[in-house]
Amino acid sequence: MSMTTNTTDTQALGLQAKQASALMAKAPAAVKNAALRKLADLLRANVDALQIDNAKDLDRAVAAGLAAPMVDRLKLTPKVIETCAQGCEQLAAMADIIGEVTALRQQPSGIRVGQMRVPIGVFGMIFESRPNVTIEAASLSIKSGNACILRGGSEAIDSNKALAKLVQQALINAGLPANAVQLVQTTDRAVVGELITLPQYVDVIIPRGGKGLIERISRDAKVPVIKHLDGNCHTYVDDPCDLAMAARVADNAKTNKYSPCNATESLLVARGVAAQFLPLIGAIYAAKGIEMRCDPEALALLQACPDKMLLQPALESDWFEEYLAPVISIKVVTGVDEAIAHINQYSSHHTDAILTRDHMHAQQFLREVDSASVMVNTSTRFADGFEYGLGAEIGISTDKFHARGPVGIEGLTSLKYVVLGEGEVRK
Asked: Taking residues 33-55, what's their average pLDDT?
């Protein structure tokens, strides 16, 4: 992989990816799976070496004064590496959907018409912070028979380079083209502008990062974009519900990890259970140092609690906010109808959950909440390709066309019509 510093080099990456994509599209499933299993082996064999490179990124991030949630996203711990390895193995064990023909139907004319699943071709992935995205993107690209060009954030450049070398080693070991996965080796931001304007080479761009990055790419790209803006996720505690279960889930949804896009940022509580539930969850959040920004009704109920709590009146802007920090907005609502209306107005349409004992309320919530993932009686933190059994994810799309929610293998494929005949001619 050569350094990429100008348009010519970016176009060279595009041409190499296009050529590699033709070979990947016809690669047998067994060969792609062998590459994935080899990659898993290499990740496990290189944990110590990867952490040395990751430490360089972490040291730079701390020295630059990067916020704690951003530094957390950079960490390539043994647990993170093992999850990446397991994701590769999970993908290798899954059925290969490339070339699969579905819905083949006989027509009155005698022809049979169906659809075949095929790779998209070349995708460009532009992402920030998380180095494990390099492996998630690469492994999904391999399994789906695509080629990809990866441009990670400057804050993770050493980690990404080390991971990309392992990917190319696995590809070569399996007899696949090394250029099927290419990492942009420079931190020059101009490369992003070049990459998103190469429709002759790149079939789709997938940005994964801050809102500013995604809005810029959506505005300037000359190729299609699968985008994910932000993760303002909600958990709604319904009346009736199991209060102990609701407290456990609402705790996990917010405090399991603050930096991911699937962490709950807003808690809605039905008025019928608010007086019982809010002191319960408030004590849990207070013990973990969570700042609670509340509407007047929630504020009054929490201020009456004896525990010392970090309470603030909520501003209108809080209902829209993706905090990625130990902060949560809290609102009391009349019931499921108001909860759904609030979520559809303020959420980023990423992931929203209801905690309830009422089956009809659960079904209404599932039907009416306009989000990529809608959940019943579980934590929003499960909105993840690995947890959904997709092996890995390229990102979580809040778009409504082509791909929505965690984007796995199917999101990196397209359908083409296939027509089978026996000499029929149109009259």
From this structure: 97
